[in-house]
Amino acid sequence: MPQPKRGRPRAFDRDRALLDAARLFWRRGYSGTSTRDLTARLGLSTSSLYGAFGSKAELFEEAVRTYAERYREIYQQAAAAPDFRTVVERVLIDSVHEFTRPDDEHPGCLLSNAAMADSTSTLDTSAYFAELQDSNERTLRTRVERAVQEGELPAGTDAAALTGLVQAVWHGLSARANLGTDREDLLATARLAHELVCGRGTPSA
């Protein structure tokens, strides 16, 4: 008589576990999220959690880097665009899409939550985010300076001021996304800012 087949155990979805853990960390911070919280949310035993991620600290660091590094990628990809108008468009529009990704793909805004003020012994979170922002700003400023050198922007354009303007818009969009502004409203603001910066003259010194 054939033996009944056992159902296969559900495969471990590392990306889903990382997303679920990130949501807890963003909301409660590293210190405020216990291992018990994580195992309950991820549906893992403590040993399985440690087997998959090494430790609570390593899980936190992987979550931070996984979701934060996407913003560095946006700036780097935008800076590779052949013209400066597209650079600004990609920085603003692609960032809005990242800010407002569906809940089942993204833990929320990284830059205005509990994770910003919390750290492990090996990752200074505030310093990490500051470095990320500095890196993005340098990437954009270098691209502005190149556009000036190549004659795409007027000679005498203040690269620091123009970079600061785009960054100020970016941070404003991030803050509004964190407050729950919907994607279409943010995109409308981003497109208007893009037109003001690139379509109606560029600020110069």
Describe the overall structure:
The protein is an all-alpha fold and 205 residues long. Helices cover 65% and strands 0% of the residues. It is built from eight helices and no strands. The protein has helices at residues 14-28, 35-42, 46-53, 56-79, 84-99, 125-149, 159-178, 183-199. The longest helix has 25 residues, at 125-149. The radius of gyration is 21 Å and the shape is elongated. The termini are far apart. Residues 4-10 and 200-205 have low confidence and may be disordered.
Distance between the termini: 87 Å
- Spans of at least 5 consecutive residues whose pLDDT stays below 50 are 4-10, 200-205
Tally the helices.
Answer: 8
From the spread of the alpha carbons, the general shape counts as elongated
- Percent of residues in beta strands: under 5%
Mean pLDDT: 87
Helix-residue proportion: 55-70%
What labels would you give this structure?
mainly alpha, 8 helices, 205 residues
